[in-house]
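Re: folding output
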Amino acid sequence: MAPASVLRLKAGRERSLAHRHPWIFSGAIESVDGNPSTGATVEVVDSRGTFLARAAYSPSSQIRARVWSFDADTAIDDAFIDRLMARACSARRDMLDDAHTACRLVHGEADGLPGVIADRYDDVVVLQLLAAGAERFRDAIGAALMAATHARCLYERSDAEVRALEGLPRRVGVIDGALPEEVVIREAGLHYVVDVVAGQKTGFYLDQRDNRAHIGVQAHGRRVLNAFCYTGGFTLAALAGGAASVLSIDSSAAALEVARSNLARNVTLDARRCTWLEADVFTELRALRNRGAWFDLIVLDPPKFAPTAAHVARAARAYKDINLLALKLLAPGGLLATFSCSGAIEASLFRKIVAGAAVDANADAAVIAQFGASADHPVALTFPEGDYLKGLLVRKRA
């Protein structure tokens, strides 16, 4: 079933596709025949007309096409979507149990479904469609998710800014079923409320699941500072791990309201050890430094400072600033868990930023562990851009 349109690459620009990288940028294209509509499937050929892939066309984006398949015999249709969706959901089956009722089900290019994100929160699945091809198959994707999960509700959060780059409108709301008044998940035995309607991303930072568990182990007996705490994921993990105290800072009153609710529903945790503070993190870190405060474990999990490569320089300054302040607040022998979720900030650059912050803070420090996203957020070997979350566990020498 050949597509009606053919996208021909310039000579020599087929190398990335030969290595199975799934993105085709506008500058690599020689011509597009057939006037394909937004999200339509096109056949990609090299300059000599040799088949390379079938891809979703996006005339508004610099990423002009995203590959569905490198197989010439594969038809891109509803059945194709069904197969890949079932495969992705099946691969995460072992990550869901009585103690863990939330995980990512579909992770875009890593699952062969570019622009498709789906997260499960107990009986609710939240869907994000971030690319033109994904939008084109919206109905098939929704039906396949419901068939694979038997969820109570499928809710759409296609409201990320990247959709504008694809020429797509914002979409939010129930696709199928009924959204419960409250969505509650369990992670490592702890209960969290998830705001799927207005929360960050799809409502919760599922990619930090393994890292929260790690911080819980490290927190025992320590004075903890959780900066950019959002709804309290690292805070609750630290309290469950036996932290002596936790100061949690975020600028969002709404997020802190959910965080307090999360703590209240986990009755085994000692709420007296926890302090919530609504404040700008940069300002408050400076104030804590000026007051001579000390912490034994600091978690820095800021929002995405560099959404694109154009923001890297400014983001690097922001990352250095908060890490410098954190290292000054860290007691001798203390631990800093510092993260970046900016895909445009490569791991090597992030390490250099933290190293520079340590020099400026006059802190003798060493990396003792590295963090990444949990296993439900795989990174395709042919798509290194998917390795967006990186983190370091740094010990400040006594």
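--- second protein (sequence, then structure) ---
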Amino acid sequence: MSDQEEQRIQKIIANAGLCSRREAERYIEDGKVRVNGKVAELGDKALPSAPIFVNNKPLLMKQERIVTLIMNKPKGVMCTNSDPHAERTVFDLLPADLLRLRLFCAGRLDKDSEGLLVITNDGDLAHRLTHPSTEIVKRYRVVLHRDFNKEDIPKLLNGVEYEGDFLKAEKVLPAPQIGEGHQRRLEVHLHHGKKREVRRLFEANRYFVKKLVRVQIGGIILKNIPKGGIKILGKKDIERLFA
């Protein structure tokens, strides 16, 4: 698509590297985006060269290299670059040369969760990765506060309406019967990533998740990255994300 053609405003904002397309849609819904002096509405289009303001700041088209990386997110850090009250964020763990880029999380993990996280400044990649239609499998290892009853597996697979969302797992695998506490350990596969979906799905079935680790996204498995460590993805790695 040429820069002389009108594009959806959320796409222009994402391509500028400010945030993901989904977050850009939220800014528009909240009335925080102005184009040519007018408050934008979802669905509006504009030329990428149009004067666009987000949160009263001019949108600057990026002239920076595209970077996508994975992190082994530790517990206790937040996936945000827009919350001034966040004590510690995943961006505090990045080396200085990457901090100069306008990176954001493509799909989040909550503060108490750990594991595989994708961080990028590629708005299109983030949109593809987080959009439900792509059905990219995400695998989680879960430890519950009490023994899991295998008769509850169909409830998790069939799904439940909870707090205004329909939550469901694609696959639930109890841990092998080895070691202490194996009855509390599970592996859960999801296609989507609604807010705190794994935790809320178990809450709806009267379980409390004590530990949650995301171990896989698409064809990329978390291995050989220490907690808080990162790996820059090459072209082949990015293809594996969508495998």
